[in-house]
Design a protein that fits this description.
The structure is a homotetramer of 411-residue chains. Chain A is an alpha+beta fold and 411 residues long. Chain A is built from eleven helices and nine strands.
């Protein structure tokens, strides 16, 4: 169980780290400052400089071969293992636009995974190729406003057969990335047979983002932020006609596709969250050494040694657990790795949230202000406690896996 | 130690509760939706409808005699005790603009307290009267960007004597309420003798907000929000000339004034935070009963009974502690009540934050969105862990008070 | 809602505190040292000096009128309120044998309550009178080894009608106080109709401890301690014949009696646990000031200020919650106070356990040794998380009470 | 960074696991039941059957070559890495006498390490050889009653030069293993120059246990247990004469020896604690599936899924952190691994304590009784929060290591 950095990945990590720190971070600041400045007033339109920043960095990354690392265990790209990728993803997690610069950002990687794994050739030609090239972006359209999505069997967006097509009607929300004008393709989970057994009710469709009848109602806000131009959109489907050919695996197999997609996606989020925690701890230490109160460095006051130590211990443990989950994916496959993915899916956002919260507190009021990135990091990792399943659902999975060891029948 | 609702305050609580729920809450929603819609693009300008809402409600409250409850232990207004006021403040905490409607909002109450207690008659005529009438608003100008404000002795905004005046130079930030165009008076803590003993260095000034040389640099953001039009402003003082007559108590007595001010202010924040926790628990229960997953009400799933029970227990304890601190203020005075105020100052924001966080989690992603008030409530109570002193400083006070019981010399 | 010490109870608290500290504590140490020294080797036999200590102190207490305080709201004794009693019980909690000295110890108070409230005159004459006088002791025989007692409907000790008698068969365990040779009466919950509705299956009997067929199998151990000579006994009933007249309230009404009994008993445990927490905090402070490391007092090192402050805040909140539960019992009755009793039943043992644990840690290894009372205090409060219902069951009660506010039907 | 079980160690782990479960566990029960049954009444004397059990099992283990695994990175024994040893130690942690059966028990391994690393040949012949063979046992004599041992520079047992000898005077306590009659050698830290710089004051001596002048005052108790016949003894040294030749490394180098000793010893404790946590989780699951309440398996009630999941996640993280610390020792040496050892030294006992506590709670009162091993496991891991340095000291080490990354000067 080698969880260390391999010789192969070490120089890549170093290159990525440097590029993130030296080249991406300053431009990220500029990029974020430009959000919402489009003359139209539309916060989801990029101004030219934003695209220039993104395209420039992406071109640079591609030229350097720092591209599509996430394509693990594949003969395309580096063929990195998930463990190796974890070290890269951690670095990318430290700056907002970094993951996209290396074409390793959510939700595109998950969607590419679906297209790669379950897509027919024509789908790959049409959508996977430009996604792999970073030319377009994508969205994964699953969550719905009307039901507790933790129980995915309740998802209700209706898809009714009509000749060679399906007609889709209903609402979806929290569709991340759908705000981006470059988002060109949707992968949509819809209910094709509400009376079927629980895990055969849904079907996974793929379609162009500009398919008629799909309407963005509003951006959902995360602690008041619309995360423009990426966005988490609330959408309505009204008589959206999609060819039956646009289905992954077959009617009623939506759950299977969803499960295959979510494993890697979940763990990538965790890797990046650990990067954020690491960054927060660094900020906490630097601030603790830089400021004084009552004649001492803040780091030396009160419980701050304990707080710093706890942060360090928690991060190390979360990272190791994440690496082990990655190693399970590499060696036993996504399915067998599920309880491990659930574990880190609970642990990483909680750990990162706690460390960032302590970092904010040690910074004083500055810590929650625009002068530091901590508040934004915190709200982001807070969303991860819902995204791809709330903590409670993952804890339930872990417990059931544990109890199954002692009992053959289902608990 | 009667911590209950008295017969005198009970009908007032009922009236306030009804007015908050039935009349203020709907208009608060309208008010908040109008923030940032001023044609000038200046988010800190009210549009007429906003002022109409505020003035209308304030007039109504005044007509009903629901006004200036915070003036405890006084022959003006109701002469309520702090314990009695706590029950009212809790209700006001549940809706954004409610406290202002009853002229019980921060930072005005604290500033009125200073003017009432330490102000000369001309100060009262000029600033206290219109504040008590709700005609103007005020700001308390203490925190600085360059120093850890937890150690207030470090505050550095310079006030140098020049004839009958002082000349002020320096920066302040997180000046809450200074964004509001109606804010007409500042109470400013400045350093008049950096070489004096620690608690004799500072002096508390009062001045018109439009005194020349005071410049608002920018609004500070709280998790990305500017809280317009109230705001938490970053300000610069450049050769601001203030008459020496505008000093409370006398040169070098700024700490004394600050201490007198902060006690009640801190506890009012706590009371309102408990109101928010109570509201979050109600939302959690309602949502838990309204939604289903896996064939059960969400409230009945997993650890949710425990989460609800813990929230209820934590809120009850925080409320009782708050009431006891209030009772200490009423019976032993602000100074003797300090360790009690420190206790609740730590407990109430942490408790409210935890309950609101759980409520968000039970709501699923909706919980952090604009569809519910929870995210806004959370960011607000998170600021209370810094405002008026960070948790660590208050814990330190509590510990020192505890240890003093066993040792005469200072620890 | 007066939660303070009344003028009536204040001098009693002072008297009890002094007697506990000055007279009982030293003899308690002597008493405990004598445990297990009976020549017979039977750890549950007192040596004469132990009885001399107990009887001497009890006589003293009785002479001073410090006796049977727990008889609240009664024309016998003081007629104290439960709130008033709380302050006394807290003091008694600080030393092992103190509660018995004042005839206020578990399980006798609960059993006297049952006899007083539900007993017929002959029962009162036979068992209540000597109990009130401190001449005999009693046990409450409910918990069973074979079932999860948290669901009391499962209790299985069988009572079968045979003429004018019932014949009891089965096992009970954790029968506290049944080890004491002075224990003369048992109150026993038995199943008289396993097919009846859930809360009508059981009946509450009273019988002499020496009724033939009752056999003590062994003492149960608490973290390895048998708590001799009090003990928590594992017992077997073999064809134990009890007259049908020895039933409280009537056949099938055992639950009703149990509920009536458990309310006060639970809260008395909580009051004493708070006394223990208070004592642990005092020990923590004294030790923190007495010892040095790295050139500083231990109290000033690391997170110790925070630990002390948290302990103080937690204790205050637990005490206030306990007082409010007591006040609810006084003003609304035991039944209405149930959710409040559940709250403090969860909070007090957890709080006390946490404070004692921190006190142990601050003492270093000495803290868990025989040189300090902390380890014994910790194991005792740990038992309270099971006794009279585990935390989970009480949290469940609190949650259900909370949810009922929003829904008429049962959750 | 291979943290997995190697092919080399896997069959050993399997053999050890089986022997622990099938052969040692039943005899451990018998062994423990015999404690305190010696006719002399001396709890620290073995009865013959106890020695028969120990010797029989040790002979068996030796015959099977399951012996001295802890001798890592050595050409004697297996030459296992610390990572490999971790997997073995975890299994040994699950049953009381198991570690001794394989000659891998504390404090002997640490003491053998000292003799091996710092001992002269005659010391090895005299004490190391029989220790390696399991013929004698040893004690490490460091902690003192009069000072906070967390600051070891305060240790005061006096060693004064007298010709070719040193004369030792003073007290030590918590000397684990010194109760065992087979304990034949002491390694003793004494102060040879109280005026020297902090880390040059002490010297490490080795001596026969029966050196005149050493007196056992009493066994220290751990939550009331004397842990006989192993014991944690309180000892007095009165004019104990030890040759100057009996010093490790040289006068004033006691700290160096102590540091070299404590690294491995600390981590071995952690490995075994993780074994105990794993065992507790298994017990929790089995009990949760075996019992019912309210018509459901206990495992399915309330928050139990979450509790089980949290236990599983916490154990995995603690194990990974422990393995990483072991790997650091293997690859970077004990000194460089110090902050890692401190991390797991904090984490493992806390994690194990939490899991065992939850397991007790899920068992109901039975969980703290003699019917399950949980209470004993809990008190044992609780001692680990003091042994070899309290949590606070280790957190301090971790924080200082963290802060040093950002600052050259000492914090």
């Amino acid at each position: 169980m080698d969880l260390g950095m391999t010789d192969r990945v070490r120089p890549l990590v170093e290159q990525v780290r440097r590029m993130v720190e030296d080249e991406i971070a300053p431009l990220d600041t500029e990029f974020q400052a430009l959000v919402g400045t489009h003359p139209s007033g539309d916060r989801f339109q990029h101004v030219p400089r934003q695209l220039e920043i993104l395209d420039g960095l992406k071109t640079l990354a591609k030229e350097r071969g720092l591209w599509n690392f996430w394509l693990t265990d594949s003969d395309r790209g580096y063929g990195l293992s998930t463990v190796e990728y974890a070290y890269l993803a951690e670095e990318m997690g430290k700056v907002g636009i970094a993951a996209e610069v290396f074409n390793c950002n959510a939700p595109d990687t998950g969607n590419m995974e679906v297209l790669e794994r379950y897509g027919e050739q024509w789908m790959k030609d049409r959508w996977l190729a430009p996604l792999l090239n970073g030319d377009i972006r994508s969205a994964y359209v699953m969550t719905e406003p009307g039901v507790a999505s933790s129980d995915a069997a309740q998802l209700a967006l209706d898809a009714t057969r009509d000749g060679d097509d399906f007609i889709l009607n209903g609402e979806k929300w929290w569709i991340s990335g759908a705000g981006d004008p470059r988002c060109a393709v949707y992968i949509v989970m819809a209910c094709t047979d509400a009376d079927a057994p629980k895990h055969a009710r849904h079907t996974m469709f793929v379609m162009d983002a500009d398919t008629p009848g799909i309407e963005v109602l509003r951006p959902m806000q995360v602690f008041g932020h619309d995360d423009a131009p990426h966005g988490h959109m609330h959408m309505r489907f009204t008589n959206v006609r999609v060819p039956a050919a646009n289905i992954f695996l077959g009617e009623g197999r939506g759950f299977e596709v969803a499960q295959g997609r979510l494993g890697p996606g979940r763990i990538h989020h965790c890797m990046r969250a650990i990067g954020q925690a690491e960054k927060a701890l660094e900020m906490m230490c630097r601030r603790g050494l830089a400021r004084e109160a009552f004649g001492k460095k803040i780091a030396e006051l009160g419980a701050n040694f304990d707080i710093i130590a706890n942060a360090r211990m928690d991060i190390e443990m979360a990272r190791l657990l994440c690496l082990k989950a990655a190693w399970m994916m590499d060696t036993a496959g996504v399915r067998a790795a599920q309880p491990w993915i659930s574990k880190i899916k609970v642990v990483a956002p909680l750990t990162a949230g706690r460390v960032i919260d302590e970092a904010m507190q040690l910074h004083g009021a500055a810590g929650i202000s625009q002068d530091f990135d901590l508040a934004h990091m915190w709200t982001h990792v807070r969303t991860l406690r819902f995204a791809d399943g709330p903590d409670a659902v993952h804890r339930r999975q872990v417990a059931r896996a544990e109890l199954r060891k002692y009992q053959n029948e289902k608990v």
